[in-house]
Amino acid sequence: MEVLEYDIVILGSGLAGMRAALQAAKASNDQLRIALVSKLHAMRSHSVSAEGGISGVLYSGQHGDSVDLHGYDTAKGSDFLGDQDAIELLVNHAPSEIKLFDHLGVPWNRDKSDKITLRAFGGMSVPRTAFAGDKTGFFMLSALYDSLLSFSNIKIFHEHIATKLIIEKKQFRGLVAMDMATGEMKAFVSNAGIIATGGFGRSYGFTTTSYSSTGDGHALAYEAGLPLKDMEFIQFHPTALIPSGILITEAARGEGAYLLNSDGKRFMENYAKSKMELAPRDIVSRSIITEIEAGRGIKDERFGDTEFVYLDMRHLGEAKINERLPNIKEIAIKMIGIDPSDAPLPVKPACHFTMGGIHTNIDGNVISGPKGVIVGLWAAGECGCVSVHGANRLGSNSLSECVIWGKITGNAAARLASKGRPVSDEVIKNTLAAEEKRIISMIESDGKENPYDIRRDLWRTMDAKVGVYRDAKALTEAVHEIGALQKRFAHIGLGDKGRVYNTNLKDTLEIWNMLLLSRAVAECALNRRESRGAHSRKEYPKRDDKNWLKHTIVTLGDDKNKITYGKVKITKWQPEERKY
Ligand SMILES: Cc1cc2nc3c(=O)[nH]c(=O)nc-3n(C[C@H](O)[C@H](O)[C@H](O)COP(=O)(O)OP(=O)(O)OC[C@H]3O[C@@H](n4cnc5c(N)ncnc54)[C@H](O)[C@@H]3O)c2cc1C
Fold first, then answer.
1. What is d(CA 284, CA 263) in angstroms, rounded to the nearest whole number?
2. What's the 50 CA to ligand 1 centre distance in angstroms?
């Protein structure tokens, strides 16, 4: 066991975590010691797989675009649940962040006059998404990683999985993490911490997200008694490749790809006549499920027994596909042996993004309860809910959120950390010792339950009962089934009893986190008796602003979680009927 002292500890090395580290390092003039802790090698963070691009108004006036229009699109896309002060902040800061990454070396696609090319994305009125082919996340994360390596005061702890936050009297004190390579437990003592652990899309079986997207940061905060916000809002991306669930980026439709049903018809004209395939994701996903349920889905035994629709990009031509969507082409050929220049791709909605997260104020400062914040603790990126995406995120707004709130929280952490050095004391040592004991007893557990069976059953429940369309019966069953899985978890047994690279243990810690969060999702979804954005209740098909224009706030309870509601901030854009 080891106790390490740092001025700032950042948990997570995706775009949000790395951007926070860069900002904190710049703001600290090389003076502050910064630890970047990641359960993966930093460059394997999920952000690396972001494909389509990052939104921001680079050329105001082009196609009639403006920062205000970006704000309106985002508020409308959120089904008016997004906090509009945060949305304004997002759209105002996005252009300068894209330019920063230009300076850091991201090879944005450019036109002949060297201007950064912008592509269309769902729910955006005009093209305003900058991109680097269809590997935008990879290029942005590489650029950040290269920059961080030039700071001698940043230490990256690759493959260290955090297991506990240390919070005392509403003050952040540090965290405990396990070094995967040795199994050693380490306490990182710090007055300033930023959680940037990404989403929890892996709580579903059919998902586009990485295996590492298990919501650990959410769960650590939740277990520390902190509230989570808007957990019922899960984004289903319309076009995940059958049967793996690998994403076919919305950029494919942005470049002009069509969706076709079994009659070969572009069915989106029945659901969103003006936007067609580029309606927001919640609408396109519902339309696909509706087509399949109406008997207009397609079956092909080569791809298993799931029904799907076609994503057709043949008319784009090979040259455009090679230039704009090379990654998609490679994925389709490798995974199912189909070249999208020659044949349409089988696709279906899959869990893709989690709008809900750790409840923060507009500065990313973690809220402690009904009143006040945790001093010295921030959350940024997909794990935080600030909330810009409300009930439905628009594609390409997440990368903007990650880097903007990475910057904001990095600055805030540096300001606070410069006021005094952290001290380790009995609280830290006792917490570390208790965590060591807990981890050892987990390794030694020899119960009959295999954690992977529990995960498989969780995936079945989430896919079948907490999907695109929901109803009270299915959600009630889901709550009970997840509760039963939590009870089974008490009787797990681990096959791997070692401490070196015990991935069996890591997976088990993650499975518990997903159980906790999935239960919160199902309970919050059951409570919200309206349809808004990505949350579609069959019995309540309409949005109900009178009763439900409010954020869900959930805190962990022993048997049932406590759910309360909070105000949505409306500044410029009054709620209106959402038509596309
Ligand atoms: C396939 C795909 C493509 C996407 N494409 C786009 C796009 O083009 N544009 C867009 O705007 N959005 C896109 N998104 C969404 C976007 O990629 C994510 O929301 C964003 O990358 C999340 O970044 P993050 O920094 O919050 O977290 P992540 O990149 O998920 O990083 C999380 C970090 O936390 C660490 N971590 C987690 N738990 C622990 C723990 N217990 N201990 C230590 N470390 C931990 C991980 O190691 C990792 O470093 C896409 C999503 C998917 C699934």
1. 18
2. 8
Task: Identify which of 399, 503, 512, 514 to mutate to test ligand 1's pocket (most ligand atoms within 8 A of the CB).
Answer: 399
Ligand 1 atom at minimum distance from 136 CA: 8
What is the SS3 assignment for 307-326? CEEEEECHHHCHHHHHHHCH
User: What confidence tens digit (pLDDT) does each residue in 303-351 have?
Assistant: 988 999 999 999 999 999 999 999 999 999 999 999 999 999 999 999 9
Rama region for 139: left / alpha / beta (φ>0; ψ in -120 to 50; rest): alpha
Ligand 1 environment, Cβ below 6 A: 11-17, 37-40, 45-47, 49-54, 136-137, 161-162, 196-199, 208-209, 212-213, 216-217, 247, 352-353, 381-383, 396-399, 402
From the CB of residue 335, how many other CB atoms can be counted at a distance below 10 Å? 14
**Residues carrying an active site annotation:** 237, 253
Fold designation for 1-51+135-233+355-550: FAD/NAD(P)-binding domain (3.50.50)
Distance from C-alpha of 114 to C-alpha of 445, rounded to nearest angstrom:
60
Using only C-alpha atoms, the chain has a radius of gyration, in whole angstroms, of 23
Do residues 499 and 454 lie in contact, with contact meaning Cβ atoms separated by under 8 Å? no
pLDDT at 30: 81
237-349 carries CATH number 3.90.700.10:
yes
Q: Helix crossing, 136-148 with 84-104: angle to 10°?
A: 70
pLDDT reported for residue 55:
98
Domain with CATH 3.90.700.10 in the chain: 237-349
- In the chain, which stretches have pLDDT less than 70? none
Nearest CA to ligand 1 atom 9: 396
Distance CA 21, CA 27 (A): 10
In 313-454, which ranges are E strands? 345-354, 357-359, 365-367, 373-379, 384-385
User: How far apart, in whole angstroms, are the C-alpha atoms of residue 15 and residue 384?
Assistant: 13
Ligand 1 atom, smallest distance to 177 CA: 42
Q: What's the CA gap between 395 and 210, in Å, rounded?
A: 17
